[in-house]
Write a structure and sequence with these properties.
Chain lengths: 468, 225
């Protein structure tokens, strides 16, 4: 039972709270006690000293008799009944005072002694000081310190009360904390239970107070959102594989089967086999593209990011594709402005723009123009490819980056519908985005990535990372 | 050339060994890491084709590391179904000279392994390359065929230089993309064909004999008959 209670985080927290509370209360009372007794002791010592000084003056003015009388007077007039006196003659006999004997410890004159002594049949604590008088007389002046004892008992009482209160407070605090804890944890664990039994739509309820529990709930919900997006991605990929790869596989299979049964000559057979190999290569390419996209989406390649100057990268692409466009009766135009420095993966940015250029060239009408633009806008770098072809119907814009999506206008061109998916994945890997806009007519596809914050001018010395 | 193939899959290795022999090479085959390492250290080879995943406790990376540890610098081409960029980088960092992912076209494998083996024999830095009556001066960066000077764009120059350094060998489109443009992916469009045909216009068209040949379903070859 006790062990079980200790397993509860709420109970442990409450106990720790009670302990801290109790210890600090005890410390406070202790410090109070020590400092007040110090003050009292100093007051007593000062009183003893003043008393002795007065008695010494009596001796000088009235001699021994004057002193004895004064002592008798003081004893009689001492209302608190706490003053103690004793005078010894040179032979050590008591000649005046209210003290039965000379305390043995009190030998030196430069110290005040605290001694427990007997008075009127009861034990008390008193402070004594010895003074030497002329002609060999010795004077003992003392004070009972009863006030201090009273203070001690008072403080002890306060301490006991406060400890009781601390106990009471910590028990109620413990219950409160345990309840609060239990409510929060049961919320989260109910959500987790629902999710592990398959209900991925459940989320932790947020109270809206914006407290720590809310923040924790939000973090958990964010994590769940990300998880379900990933799950959707996996489902999407497996569906895509199941449906979209069926077609080319069926085609290759049919070709081979047809050749096996109907081919009339070795020539026909060879031709069928060659075409089946091409089909298989196509399937391999799709697999490769799918794997590359999921590799990018997983974000693992972010570790390979380096500072990049995108100008030479665009120059290279222009060099590579300019000739291709010309061959197809098109014109590729390069427009670069501003500083294009970013942190990223050179291969992936190249591949993304290559995909955009492939698309633009594929969908451009004869004698059209394709523009490759690199510009700096605010904190972002915009890499755009604009064509003046058929463009994307407004209804399809949201879906063209889905895996295997092919618009009606693209139905009759070669491709698998993975190009823009990869571009979007590359943009997201670089904490950027892919913007598709109507170029009226045609499509303007823009890869937006954040510009790198570069200190000084070091980046002119980067072609090693860029052109290698 | 003497080539060692370390590959455990019977069909794949049978197909590679047969193809290489048909291409005129002497081929040894091992089907696990241990035998592969033994063969590689006890005999001289011009190139080694090494599968990444091998049975028997010693995988391709292990074989390569032990080989390089013994200061054996035989060119090694990895053959692997592990196609992620990281796998490729790891293979090349461990001392591999090339990395080909499965599935592959045999022509690609043959072209690459021949290029590897040949590269090793290349001696010292050259200042002049010559194929038939085509001459390239690497210092003045000029090209002439017979007496005629040929003007090339910088990238065309690099393309021709690559082809001339691999004279008599098949060079695939992927090899050109990697070697000349440093691109490690295949664009959909046949960009390489366009550039090669432009180069051909300049170095072959005005003359009666062709040097730059297309090798069907493989790539290109620069050769003086």
């Amino acid at each position: 039972m006790v062990v079980r209670a200790f397993r509860s985080a709420g109970v442990r927290l409450a106990l720790a709270y009670a302990l801290v509370f109790g210890v600090s209360a005890a410390l406070l009372v202790g410090v109070l006690w020590v400092s007040s007794t110090n003050i009292l002791t100093r007051q007593v010592d000062a009183a003893i000293d003043a008393d002795a000084q007065g008695l010494g003056e009596q001796w000088s003015s009235g001699g021994a008799i004057g002193l004895f009388n004064t002592i008798q007077n003081r004893i009689a007039n001492n209302l608190d009944n706490d003053a103690l006196y004793l005078v010894l003659d040179p032979k050590g006999r008591i000649v005046a005072g209210n003290q039965g004997s000379w305390p043995e410890q009190v030998s030196r004159t430069d110290e005040t002694y605290e001694i427990s002594t007997k008075r009127n049949g009861r034990r008390t604590l008193a402070r004594f000081h010895r003074y030497d008088l002329p002609e060999g007389y010795a004077l003992l002046v003392g004070r009972e310190v009863t006030a201090r004892a009273a203070l001690r008992s008072l403080l002890t009482e306060v301490l006991a009360w406060s400890l009781g209160l601390v106990g009471l407070l910590s028990i109620s605090g413990a219950l409160l904390l345990k309840n609060l804890f239990g409510r929060m944890v049961s919320q989260v664990s109910a959500t987790a239970d629902a999710i592990s039994s398959g209900d991925l739509t459940r989320r932790v309820a947020i109270s809206g107070r914006g407290d720590e529990f809310d923040r924790m709930g939000e973090t958990i919900n964010d994590m769940l959102d990300r998880l379900s997006r990933l799950m959707d991605g996996v489902r999407e990929v497996s569906n895509a594989i199941a449906h979209d790869l069926r077609t080319p596989i069926t085609r290759a299979r049919a070709r081979l089967e047809d050749a096996a049964t109907h081919a009339g000559s070795p020539e026909q057979l060879r031709c069928a086999i060659d075409r089946a190999v091409l089909d298989l290569d196509g399937i391999t390419n799709v697999f490769h593209a799918l794997l590359r996209i999921s590799e990018i989406e997983a974000g693992a390649r972010r570790s390979a990011f380096v500072p990049l100057d995108l100008r030479p990268l665009l120059d290279d692409l222009y060099d590579l594709y300019g000739a291709v466009a010309e061959e197809g009766g098109l014109q590729l135009v390069l427009q670069v402005s501003g500083e294009l420095l970013a942190r990223g993966d050179r291969d992936l940015i190249q591949q993304a723009i290559t995909n955009l250029l492939d698309n633009a060239i594929k969908f451009s009408p004869q004698a059209g123009t394709v523009e490759l633009v690199g510009e700096r806008v605010g904190d972002n770098i915009l890499l755009s490819v604009r064509d003046h072809g058929v463009g994307i119907p407004a209804g399809d814009v949201g879906r063209v980056t889905d895996r295997f999506f092919r618009g009606d206008t693209a139905r009759h061109t070669p491709g698998f519908g993975l190009g823009l998916t990869l571009v979007r994945a590359v943009a997201q890997l670089h904490s950027g985005s892919l913007r598709l806009a109507d170029a009226a007519p045609g499509l303007s596809a823009t890869l937006i990535i954040p510009a790198a914050v570069i200190e000084g001018r070091v980046n002119r010395a980067l072609p090693a990372a860029v052109g290698a | 050339m003497r080539i060692l193939v370390v590959e455990d899959d019977k069909d794949v290795s049978g197909y590679i060994v047969k193809g290489l022999r048909e291409a005129g090479h002497l081929v040894e085959h091992a089907d696990n890491g241990r035998d592969g390492l033994l063969a590689a250290t006890s005999q001289e080879f011009d190139a080694i084709i090494l599968d990444r995943m091998l049975p028997g406790g010693l995988d391709g990376l292990g074989v390569l590391e032990m080989l390089r540890g013994q200061d054996n610098q035989t060119p090694v081409m990895f053959l692997s179904a592990m196609a992620q960029v990281d796998d490729r980088v790891r293979g090349l960092k461990a001392g591999g000279d090339d990395y080909l992912t499965k599935p592959f076209a045999f022509s690609e494998l043959l072209a690459r392994v021949e290029a590897l083996a040949r590269r090793r024999r290349a001696s010292g830095p050259e200042t002049k390359l010559q194929v038939g009556d085509l001459e390239m001066d690497l210092l003045s960066r000029s090209v002439r065929r017979r007496t005629q000077k040929i003007e090339l764009q910088p990238r065309e120059f690099m393309l021709l230089e690559y082809l001339m350094r691999h004279v008599g060998q098949v060079v695939t489109r992927t090899m050109l993309l990697e070697g000349v443009w440093d691109y490690h992916f295949d664009p959909q469009t046949n960009v390489i064909d366009v550039h090669v045909s432009r180069l051909r216009q300049k170095i072959d068209k005005p003359f009666d004999t062709a040097l730059l040949h297309t090798v069907r379903s493989a790539g290109y070859m620069l050769r003086a008959d």
